[in-house]
Amino acid sequence: MWEGYFEYYFSECVTAMSVGRLHWVLKTHKDIIRIVEMLRNPESTRESIKEKEKDRMATSHPQIDDQVIYGAIDLAARLGFMTLIGSSEQVYRGGERCVTWSSGRLEAVLAVEFSGDGLLGKEHVKLERLFNVCNLDRIAGLQVIWTHNLANHLRVQNDDKEVSIFHYASFLNSQKTSAIFPQGFIDETMQTLALLFPQFDDDCNVWFKKRAKQESLDTAVTKCGQLAAEDRQIENFHFWRDRLIILKQVFDEAEPRGLKRWWRDRRKPVQWYNFWLAVALIVGLTFFFGVVQSVEGAMQVYKAYHPS
Question: Per the UniProt record, which residue ranges are transmembrane (predicted)?
Answer without folding.
Answer: 270-292
